[in-house]
Amino acid sequence: MTKSITKFTKPNCPMCTVTKSLYEGEHEEWAALNATITEVDITENPEAVSQHALSSVPTFLYNGKLYFGVGGYHRLKAELE
Hints:
The structure is a single chain. The protein is α+β, with helices and mostly antiparallel strands. It has helices at 14-25, 27-32, 47-51, 69-80; strands at residues 3-9, 35-41, 59-62, 65-68. The longest helix has 12 residues, at 14-25. The radius of gyration is 12 Å and the shape is globular.
């Protein structure tokens, strides 16, 4: 079963760019974990902010749990391994 992860982001967010570079560079590792990441731009989907009580970006959502920033990216990946 594919693990679907949502990444909340916005344009001109430096840490969003960092995490995107990380998972693009680790594409094979994410594929081995059978995980996909879909990006949601909060400037185009402002309802996502209130719906998920987002306080910062980048934020990753997986299985009802939020992971914030670059540290959250690494924690999420470690939990999936």
